[in-house]
Amino acid sequence: MPTYPDLPLPEDGKLAENLAHFARALRKAGLPVGPGRTLDAIRAVEAAGFARRDDFFHTLQAVFVSRPEERATFAQVFRLFWRDPRYMEHMMSLMLPQVRGVAEERAAQAAEKRAAEALLDGQLPPMPETGEAPEQIEIDASATMSAEERLKTLDFEQMSAAEIAEARRMLARLSLPVRPLVTRRSRATPAGRRIDPHRTLREALRRGGEIARLPRKAPVTRWPNLVVLCDISGSMSDYSRMVLHFVHAVANRKGQGWARVHAFTFGTRLTNITRHLRARDVDAALRAAGAEAQDWSGGTRIGQSLHAFNRDWSRRVLGQGAVVLLITDGLDRDDAGLLAREIERLHLSCRRLIWLNPLLRWTGFAPKAAGIRAMLPHVDSFRAGHSIASLEALGQAVSDPGDSGEKARLLALLRE
Amino acid sequence: MTAARRPDNLPERQGQRLTTIPRDIDGVEQLLAGQGYVASRALATVVFLALKLGRPLFLEGEAGVGKTEIAKTLAAALDRRLIRLQCYEGLDAASAVAEWNFAAQMIAIRTAEAQGGADRDALKTELFTEDYLIERPLLAAMRPQPGGAPVLLIDELDRTDEPFEAFLLEALSDFQVTIPELGTIKAPEPPIVILTSNRTREVHDALKRRCLYHWVDYPGFDRELAILHARVPEAQAALSREVVAFVQRLRHEDLFKKPGVAEAIDWAKCLLALDVISLSPEVIADTLGAILKYQDDIARIQGSEARRLLDEVKRELAPA
């Protein structure tokens, strides 16, 4: 921080006091405002003066706001506060639901927590409680498998509650290996392909100008981002819940690749659940995600959702060579033309587009639905995502740039 | 980066030279308007605060709303040198601050050897002096400049990665850079720093906290018209109104990339070059590439959609 001279503040200190109150109100509304910003605000107001109300507004906004989505909250708090600060305490309690979007770091207050729990009950459908699915006939053939092996190939939809619990534990240990990307930066390494002139010179200097060897350097690598788009409509709900467990495991595993994992759910509308997945506890994470996504087990509008993603998010999350994992059954009742356009745009914006489709587990699966026919030509890889084994195999699709999964076979079917 | 090494890239200006910073927000508005930059009151306020408080200014917004232009305008208006650091993925300290001129250093070593009696310590101190240093934008911005502290434009910050952001923290909070062989170089007078981002990713809060923040929005009809008048004065008033109204109308459409102010200006220039007096569906079809840059968007607007939008625009403008 640069140092400033002492402030010529008025003696009674009313301004400083009011600004401190205002900062506290902003903090309560969920803006990350520390004491440093309050000091900045006092300096800024001193510099800009009080001549006009809109100048005062812009001055404070420049100091307190650091993201576009905070502007609406700021404007609201500003309007309420500078009318009469005393109303603030009262108004804050009324405003809380509107500012939830930026309030994730705030410790939840007891009353709000209760309210959230009350909301959650209605929105997150309960997991199947009883094991209504008996032993499957197809599993008889695999009597020699261990319990763990059997569970790996079992369809998520056919698992009992106990099996689901066990499968989740296995999913939590799963990772998604990926190859790093090469960057322009370099680091010193004995086996590098390029000569490092900087170190060559430094070593030569140590020997009085004699070049004894040529130190080498190699490019530094970095990890790509992963973007997950998960269908949570009625036809997918059993799979999507398990897949989100998997995504949570991938997002929270340290040191296994993937610089960042962004996750979105869609049914009838698109929801960003990235920050909910950061919660370490998987149940808390999925509960928060469930509360945020209002369209669990509803209909599907894949084209519209992809359109919303392309328009609002693609430039922000796909910028640096991201891999996109699209999890959907492709059963879309909307206009197939829109879907084809949007999936093409998505494919053009990312480095790799991998489609996981649980329907692929049926051996007789053929791409008959209009949505699937529209999407198939535009994905890099098409794979099943119905069991732990198939999610394990996903690692290959991600790390091998040539892998296309079942795409070629299905495209051939499509042409028939 | 070539621009950074050329201090004479300021356009010629007539009238009085304003080299001191304005004393109030109105002054900033006038200063920018004098250069043909029509700023909103909010933008003028943050620019004034940045100048007055000596804080970096962080501008975010869609492409083509005049974020980079504000730095160029400020440099020209205040008659300061503009130093530009264009960010890209993998930008490292060597290409942002300074690099040693290895070739020259090697030659110096060989020469010293050939002359005999190369004193190792003397050689070392001699080799790592400013004579062998190639200045890059960040270091150049810390140097005193004849006309006063320079304007440092750090453009498209979202294109770099987090390590570089962390590196920038030192430069932006203390206005100093460190070169291991030389030590810390501190700016005698803090440069005017402007950072821009297209928000392709979120920039870290630690960096934002050190800056004044402003989200640059698309301008309203009147201000965009004023911008067009300032930038393309030779365009007829009627054509300008049509261009602005059409572009504003396009921004309400569901497009992958909405046209910015820069596109509106480009388009007006294109229409002038074609001697167009008034917009027609045919002219729009021929020149759509100047405002829309994605095939999907062009396909969407071309033809009947353009005709419909144009009819709407003409109806809106007619009573006025």
Rg estimate of chain B, integer Å: 24 Å
Helix and strand content put the structural class of chain B at: alpha/beta
Separate helix tally of chain B: 15
What count of structural domains of chain A?
Answer: 3
Overall shape of chain A: it is globular
* Residues in helix, % of chain A: 40-55%
* Low-pLDDT residue intervals, each spanning 5 or more residues of chain A: 1-12, 91-145
The second-level CATH architecture of the largest domain in chain A is: 3-Layer(aba) Sandwich
Class inferred from helices and paired strands of chain A? alpha/beta
User: What's the name of the CATH homologous superfamily of the largest domain in chain B?
Assistant: P-loop containing nucleotide triphosphate hydrolases
What is the first-to-last residue Cα distance of chain B?
Answer: 47 Å
Task: Kindly report the greatest chain-chain contact and the residue count on each side.
Answer: A-B, 48 and 55 residues
Total E-strand runs of chain B: 9
Beta-strand percentage of chain A?
5-15%
Rounded mean pLDDT of chain A is: 74
Strands ordered across the widest β-sheet of chain B: 2-5-8-1-9
Which value, in Å, is the CA radius of gyration of chain A? 27 Å
Count of DSSP H/I helices of chain A: 19
Q: Say which CATH homologous superfamily of the largest domain in chain A is assigned.
A: von Willebrand factor, type A domain
Domain VWFA (chain A): 223-392
InterPro entries (chain A): UCP010256, Uncharacterised_CoxE, VWF_A, vWFA_dom_sf
Organism (chain A): Tabrizicola soli
Protein name (chain A): VWA domain-containing protein
